[in-house]
């Protein structure tokens, strides 16, 4: 290896003297020797990722820690990593050991390193971790602001209770794929007053009832959440989501409810009422969503829709060329003025009527990828979206031609004021 040559190592060390982050993820052949050579070249290291590296462990990870350590030329050992952490404890702030199979004993040994004050720790898919080990970590590293425990399948509600009690400054918490997590564990989330991002995707036993109560705790302000992911939470129903949404507040920017199959138009209308500052909304595979729900129309009765696939108001508007959009009677997606990404994949009850008759919606979705359109997707749907987008652009450009000068050479094309999220790169991708 080149770094084994002293002159080369010295030049590399000088070049990387200010490097703060080292990502060695997925290097399955990384050994103690190569890791030590690389890490010796970055004395200012603050962030280290060894995610999905093949890390080996001993029964007692602290054994033999006093005295010289013998690094291995054939494997990457936790004992060697622990020695590195001890030597850099005063500077190291972020560590990613996702997918390394970290056992409870190793996590405890890591957390108790003298002088170590981690801010970010990712343990995604470390399936052997126990609730007790996480509770100990929360006592050892109370300054954590970001913690990823997604896929740590043995964790229970006790882990979430320990996190909420011990990590008061936590801003980002990932708990995806914790199949043993229930509503009881969510009761303590209200204690995390600085929490900004919460990922509970694929927590199938979480119905949202206790989450709503935790977020709307009367004696304390709700946490300033900007991101909430509840995708694939199969226990979510309209009733619980309707309780959660008003408690989220105006700070929320990203909401993912993909594959929550029981959700209906009541949920989308609540979103349009309370979460008007959303920039990303994912509703893929929410198969109960209909055109009238997205457009804020009154729910049709069975007689009015008998023999027709369209909402009566939409059917009327389709035949009326002079009125380009249905008359909204309630909150609709059109009120989400900041929306930049909308995922309606496989929302099979949606038709092109709700999109084609509302070109503003198509424009505000930004770069529309085919995966974001209802499936099955017909060429006519894509054609209607394209026509609607062109119609809006023609209207705007026509106004410029009559009253405003176009951009000069070298100037950036401006965006129509009515469509604040439209950018010159917005397009409708062709369906393959």
UniProtKB/TrEMBL annotation:
The residue ranges of the F-box/LRR-repeat protein 15-like leucin rich repeat domain are: 117-272
| Keyword annotations | Ubl conjugation pathway
Cellular component terms, GO, for this chain's entry? cytoplasm
Q: Which PANTHER family match?
A: MITOCHONDRIAL ATP SYNTHASE COUPLING FACTOR B
Q: What is this protein called?
A: Leucine-rich repeat-containing protein 29 isoform X2
Natural source organism: Castor canadensis (American beaver)
């Amino acid at each position: 290896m080149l770094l084994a040559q002293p002159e080369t190592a010295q030049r590399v060390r000088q070049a990387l003297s200010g490097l703060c982050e080292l990502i060695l993820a997925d290097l399955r052949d990384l050994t103690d020797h190569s890791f030590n050579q690389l890490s010796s070249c970055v004395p200012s290291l603050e962030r280290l990722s060894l995610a999905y590296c093949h890390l080996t462990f001993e029964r007692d990870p602290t054994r033999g820690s006093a005295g010289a350590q013998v690094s291995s030329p054939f494997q990457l050992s936790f004992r060697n990593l622990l020695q590195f952490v001890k030597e850099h404890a005063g500077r190291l702030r972020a560590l990613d050991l996702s997918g390394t199979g970290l056992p409870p004993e190793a996590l405890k040994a890591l957390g108790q390193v003298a002088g170590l004050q981690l801010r970010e720790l990712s343990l995604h898919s470390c399936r052997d971790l126990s609730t007790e080990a996480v509770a100990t970590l929360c006592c050892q590293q109370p300054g954590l602001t970001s913690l990823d425990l997604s896929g740590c399948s043995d964790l229970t509600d006790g882990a979430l209770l320990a996190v909420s009690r011990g990590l008061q400054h936590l801003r980002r918490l990932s708990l995806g794929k914790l199949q043993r997590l229930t509503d009881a564990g969510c009761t303590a989330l209200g204690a995390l007053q600085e929490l900004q991002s919460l990922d509970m995707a694929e927590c199938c036993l979480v119905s949202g009832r206790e989450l709503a109560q935790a977020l709307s705790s009367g004696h304390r302000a709700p946490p300033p959440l900007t991101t909430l992911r509840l995708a694939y939470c199969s226990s979510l129903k309209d009733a619980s989501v309707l309780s959660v949404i008003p408690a989220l507040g105006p700070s929320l920017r990203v909401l993912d409810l993909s594959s929550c199959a029981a959700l209906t138009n009541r949920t989308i209308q609540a979103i349009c009422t309370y979460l008007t500052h959303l920039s990303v909304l994912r509703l893929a595979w929410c198969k109960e969503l209909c055109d009238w729900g997205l457009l804020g129309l009154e729910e049709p009765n069975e007689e009015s829709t008998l023999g027709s696939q369209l909402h009566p108001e939409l059917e009327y508007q389709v035949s009326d060329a002079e009125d380009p959009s249905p008359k909204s009677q309630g909150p609709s997606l059109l009120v989400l003025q900041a929306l930049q990404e909308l995922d309606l994949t496989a929302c099979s009850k949606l038709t092109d009527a709700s999109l084609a008759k509302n070109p503003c919606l198509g424009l505000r979705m930004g770069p529309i990828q085919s995966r974001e359109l209802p499936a099955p997707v017909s060429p006519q749907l894509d054609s209607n979206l394209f026509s609607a987008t062109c119609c809006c652009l023609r209207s705007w450009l026509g106004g410029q031609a009559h009253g405003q000068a176009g951009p000069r050479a070298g100037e950036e094309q401006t965006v129509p004021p009515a469509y604040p999220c439209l950018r010159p790169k917005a397009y409708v991708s062709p369906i393959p």
